[in-house]
Each structure stands twice: as C-alpha cells, then as structure tokens.
Design a protein that fits this description.
Strand order of the largest sheet: 6-3-7-2-8-1-10-9
Strand content: 15-25%
Number of strands: 10
Order of helices and strands: EHHHEEEEHEHEHEHHHHEE
Shape: globular
Bound molecules: 3,4-dihydroxybenzoic acid, fe (iii) ion
Amino acid sequence: MARITASVYTSHVPAIGAALDLGNSDEPYWRPLFKGYEISKQWFEDNKPDVIFLVFNDHATAFSLDLIPTFAIGTAAEYTPADEGWGPRPVPKVIGHPELAAHIAQSVIQQDFDLTIVNKMDVDHGLTVPLSLICGQPDAWPCPVIPFAVNVVQYPIPSGARCFALGRAIRRAVESYDEPLEVQVWGTGGMSHQLQGPRAGLINAEWDKAFMDRLIGDPKGLSQTPHIEYVREAGSEGIELVMWLIARGAMGDVAGKPPPTVVHRFYHVPASNTAVGHLILQNPR
Ligand code: DHB
Ligand code: FE
C-alpha cells in the first residue's frame, strides 16, 4: 500500500524563481527568504519521497480563459517548464507518474470528485518555484511529480470545504494503491497578496499567521472560511490559499488518529508583492 508521509506548504512567487535562476539568492533582499528554506531542503534530503503530488494553480499559462478546469490531474509521463513571457525557466523537465496518477484519478472520480484528466501540460511558476525552493537546483528533479492544478484564477472557484474533502479523497486513493510508495502532498500558493487594483500590495501578516495556526490545529474549521474573507483579509490572490487545504485534508489525522507533527514553520514579508508562508507537516509512522 502507498502512504502519505508528509505535506509541504509554500508560496510560489515568480521573482523567487528569477532570483535563483539569475544567481541573486545571496543578495540582502533575498537572503532572509532563502534562509527560511534551508531546514526544509535538509529535511527533504533526509525524507525523500517516491512521488510528490503537487497541488498548484496554473496562471492562465497551460489553460487560457478558453477552458478552465476546476480540478485537473496530470497523467502524463513528463511536463515541460512553461514559457511565461520571458522564456522557460532553466529548470529540469518534470517527470510524472502516470500509473499512480491514473489510479488516483480513477479512485477520486469514483469518490464523486469530477477531475479533468490532463495528458499534456506545460507547468508554470506555480509548480516549478516550490520545487526549486525545496529541492534546490539539481540537474534532474529528485522524484516523479504528479501535477494537480486547481482553478483559483477565474471565478467561480472551489470552496475551502470542497478542497479539504478532496484532500481526504486523495489520501484514500493513495492508500488504495498497490505498491509501497511514499508520497508527499504539497499545497502551494498564497499567502496574502493582491497584484492589481487600488489594494495592490496588500499584506495581512496577522491573518496569515492565524491561517497557519488553524491549518495545523483546526483544518476542518478553517475549511469553512468563505471566499469573501480570503479576498477581504488576504487580497484577491490570497485566495490561492484554498489549495493548502487539499494538502492538509490528505494528512492522516482522521478517525481518531494522531495529528501530524510540525517539522518547520516559516513566514517572511515580502517577496515581490507576496507574504511568503511555509510549513512542513509529517504524519506519525
Ligand atoms: C506574485 C505572486 C503570485 O502568486 C503570482 O502568481 C505572481 C506574482 C508576486 O508577488 O509578484
Ligand atoms: Fe500565484
């Protein structure tokens, strides 16, 4: 049986990718940010999974406004880093896990979540920046990745409650896979930020920190937060945080089982226009 060992949560700012790719990570602006991920990189080295199930949002890169899947699972053998207007990032291509992805699609759809199956997709900063933050700058990514894209760009978008329930369905799917794979589920995006309009630049550190507290200790209660609160308190792009609830829902603390342990917690303001939050939760063995 496969199992979910841990979940990783992190923001995904494009400028972080550019800082790494251009060799600027040691500049005074960036140093404190990357320092917050040093523990995570070491932890990842010591706890390398067989597969990463990576929940992210596409930023109108692979999916234009012509076609907007709410939840899309990548079942391809590989994915190319996307050109987002200034050339593709110089990072390795992403190797998929078609067998596990197809199994999860089968199981989750049979649990009544209507996923879109994606056999070809370029992956943008939403996916590649978290990989760079945790895995560094290797010649090849350390393990296969199953991309799972969530629409948080064009309303209507899924609720936090729906995302949390989906995470639970993903855990059941993984646990019904026949091979003894260790899987990490990553939830990416957020934290508070707004990129346009009169409130551009909005950061709400107090709200972000309370979100992290509740994600750890009261995820089901947190999942009831309505969209309007995310937008009001965390800015229009703060809504990306609903994706963290998918990863949290996939953790093992159901039916009286113990909660995950907090391996690492980090918060930094700002990176570009965004409050960066990062968390690692590990299931007890
Ligand atoms: C920024 C943040 C995002 O989440 C994004 O998708 C694009 C830009 C930013 O802070 O610049
Ligand atoms: Fe984003």
